[in-house]
């Protein structure tokens, strides 16, 4: 029982650390991308997964007097935006191809929430199993 308790506690800690790292990375990117501009979704890049396709929007925007096209780092199972949609994006002034799109952050927030729920469940099981020893 001791090993099972330690295993569940370790998994719970790992599942707590992963979303914390994801949140910190998202905040760091948001801090670096401190300039805003209007971008237009001009097309989608399609990626083939094991059993389905995902789509990443391509944004066209002006920054520092030049036009950029950047493929989003986030791909979705459906097309979240329509071609021609305009939205505010944030970019890094020193590297305008680095962007942050607030409208895409729902998936990161969803994943971090799931990880935290799993973490709490694993920690709870680990504590319950550990309590059986005493």
Main sheet strand line-up: 3-2-1-4-5
Largest sheet: 5 strands, antiparallel
Rg for CA atoms = 20 Å
Number of helices: 2
Q: In whole angstroms, how far apart are the ends? A: 11 Å
How many beta-strand runs? 5
Strand content: 25-35%
Approximately how much helix is present in the residues?
A: 40-55%
Class based on secondary structure composition and strand pairing: alpha+beta
- Low-confidence region ranges: none
Q: Tell me, briefly, the overall form.
A: elongated
Oligomer: single chain
User: What sequence of helices (H) and strands (E) makes up the elements?
Assistant: HEEEEEH
Mean pLDDT: 92
Q: What does this protein look like?
A:
The protein is of the alpha+beta class and 134 residues long. 43% of the residues lie in helices and 29% in strands. It contains two helices and five strands, in the order αβββββα. It has a five-stranded antiparallel β-sheet, with helices on one face. Strand 4 and strand 5 form a beta hairpin. Helix 1 runs antiparallel to helix 2. The model has no long low-confidence stretch (mean pLDDT 92).
What characteristics describe this protein?
elongated; five-stranded antiparallel sheet; 43% helix; 134 residues; alpha+beta
């Amino acid at each position: 029982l001791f090993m099972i308790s330690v295993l569940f506690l370790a998994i719970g800690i790992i599942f707590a650390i992963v979303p914390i790292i994801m949140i910190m990375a998202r905040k760091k990117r948001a801090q670096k991308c401190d300039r805003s501009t209007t971008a237009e979704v001009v097309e989608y890049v399609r990626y083939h997964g094991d059993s389905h396709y995902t789509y990443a929007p391509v944004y066209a925007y002006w920054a520092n007097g030049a036009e950029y096209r950047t493929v989003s780092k986030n791909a979705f199972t459906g097309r979240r935006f329509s071609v021609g949609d305009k939205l505010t994006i944030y970019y890094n002034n020193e590297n305008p191809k680095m962007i942050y799109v607030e409208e895409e952050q729902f998936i990161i927030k969803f994943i971090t929430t799931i990880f935290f729920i799993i973490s709490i469940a694993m920690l709870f099981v680990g504590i319950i199993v550990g309590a059986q020893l005493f």
